[in-house]
Amino acid sequence: MIKERVNKILHALNKNLFEREEAIKLAFLTTIAGESIFLLGPPGVAKSLIARRIKEIFKDGNSFEYLMNRFSTPDEIFGPIAISKLKKDDKYERITEKYLPTADIVFLDEIWKAGPSIQNSLLTVINEKVYRNGQQEVNIPLKGLISASNELPAKGEGLEALWDRFIIRYLVENISDSKNFNTFLATENIGFDAKINEKDKITNDEYKKWQISISKVKISDEVLNVINVIRNYIEKYNNKKDTKKPIYVSDRRWKKIVKVLKTSAFLNDRNKIDLMDCFLIAYMIWDEIEQIDIVKGFVSDAIKNHGYSLKYNLSLFTNEIKDLKLDIDNQTKESKRITFYEPKPYKIGNATYYEIIDDNRNLIDRNYNRHNNLIRKSDFDSLTKSNYKTIDLYSKSGEKNYRSRYEAYKKSPSEIMIREINSYGYGYRENTGNTYDLLKNRKTKTEVKTKKPHKAIIKEWDKTVNNLLNEIDKTIEEIENYKNEDLASLKENIFVNKKLASLAEHNLNQTINSFVAEKIRVEKLKKEYDAL
User: Distance of CA 76 to CAs 69, 71, 100, 153, 282, Å?
Assistant: First the structure.
């Protein structure tokens, strides 16, 4: 089992180191993937120590390390010119033994101080594992290149291409936990070398076989979906008006990202990339320090909310339920447009009135000859049938009739019975009233009537409902089994914090809840047509 062996190697690499476990793991992963890693951090945070320990993972492996400065020459990195060949054969070749072209692991400190001639050679070395020595191209044994600096590459100095070659970028900081720091101070001999058991070290032949196996690791649909969601997040982020530094991830870089994910899956004894591997993407898509938290958010959100949206496709059920409901509605409901009338509101100021149709002008104030044929909507709404209630009437200017008093009751939603109970100046009282219509608006509405469908149709619906419920229950059970069994493996990923598995689990819980909601919809539909 490769995973068990890798854990032993990582344990040895981390001995007497504090808060460097993640950096060690990422450097190891990148090396096995045949890619390069950049460590960003201030002096004295063990960047060179990490690189020196990584070289110990290979049996009989060679290493090369160099501290760059602005005066560094290609001779110091790739080897001196072979003077004898230049004199004898007129050939411009370098003596590469014990220099970068013959090393399995390379550590280049202060990488951005390298001159253009070194940078250009490094591009081919990192990308193609080839070094051009004179007139010949030599395949080099380079497995991993670790670079470091306390700064990011300066803008406008042509370092973009070299920066893009480092697939993983990792920020190394000082020890933060006080307990770890105190133990670090008390540790006498940390040691640059890692004591790895010889039988656990990786041979050159094994490394080559691993590369073949890594290339065969599959990428699942849910992982492809997560990657595309992340790409979409990046595009939206870059299109925002306040984005000053866009995130750029080339197609070539995405290809290399997938290779790292495949390597993670392989080293975890899997033949397929899973969602936990996808958390590693966050280390591979930032360019500026301020983007680190942003891309972590993109990756976490994509896994949390979209991780299993393809694996457990809810839309298939949703569409079938939608078709079933449409069929039930068509077979059980009849729609009919009907015309109706309702009192027309009349606004004066902040109050709403209804206009009483009084063609005989019975509601005229006898002293002022003022037509009082408005009643407040609130007064009309408060009326009951048959029982008289005292009301006030108003003119169209909103003036209240103080000289006459009236009683009324509601005969219908648009009819009112009114009688006068006091008329000042004339001294009479009326005991009988008149029926008045209210001024109305003509309106239409759809009235739906239900009908019981044929038994044969109900039988077909029952069949569809049973199939849907069985399939939904089957899917929910499948997700629950995945949670109980396969989700445990997510928490055991060597390179990713097991706490992050809760984000993948969140998406599973969301998915289960969605299926349960659809199941309830189906059961509700059955109850509705059974009740007809």
Answer: 11, 10, 9, 21, 34
**Are residues 380 and 510 both part of a single domain?**
no
Query: pLDDT, tens digit, for every residue of 349-384?
Result: 999 999 999 998 888 876 667 888 999 999 999 999
For residue 231, the enclosing domain spans 216-298
Q: Residues 16, 73: one domain?
A: yes
pLDDT tens-place string over residues 107-156:
999 999 988 888 888 988 888 899 888 778 889 999 999 999 999 998 88
Task: Give the pLDDT band (50/70/90) at residue 29.
Answer: very high
Contact 490, 2 (CB under 8 A): no
What per-residue confidence (pLDDT) applies to 425? 43
By C-alpha distance, which of 309, 273, 278, 310 is closest to 296?
278
Strand-pair partners of 233: none
SS3 of 364-380: ECCCCCCECCEEEHHHH
Instruction: Give domain status of residue 444, yes or no.
Output: no
Burial class (CB in 10 A: 0-12, 13-18, 19+), 57: buried
pLDDT for 422 equals 61
Q: Which letter does DSSP use for residue 154 in this model? A: P
Burial category of 447 from C-beta neighbours within 10 Å (exposed 0-12, middle 13-18, buried 19 and up):
exposed
Tokens representing residue 185 in the block:
């101070």
Query: How confident is residue 401, by pLDDT bands cut at 50, 70 and 90?
Result: confident
The total number of structural domains that make up the chain: 4
CA dihedral 407, 411, 412, 416 (to 10 degrees): -40
Residue pLDDT, tens place only, 83-120: 877 777 777 788 889 999 999 999 999 999 988 888 88
Q: Where are the beta strands (DSSP E) in 36-158?
A: 36-40, 63-67, 105-109, 130-133, 136-139, 144-149
CA distance 268 to 428: 103
Residues 256, 257, 263, 264: what is their CA dihedral angle, to the nearest 10 degrees? 170
Report if residue 339 sits inside a domain: no
- Between CA 301 and CA 228 the distance in angstroms is 12
In this structure, are 329 and 351 located in the same domain? no
Specify the pTM. 0.73
Q: Average the pLDDT over 243-253 and give the result.
A: 91
Residue type, 111: I
Q: Which two tokens stand for residue 493?
A: 């990923």
**280 in Cβ contact with 260 (< 8 Å):** yes
DSSP 8-state symbol, 189: -
- State the Cα–Cα distance between residues 20 and 23, nearest whole angstrom: 5
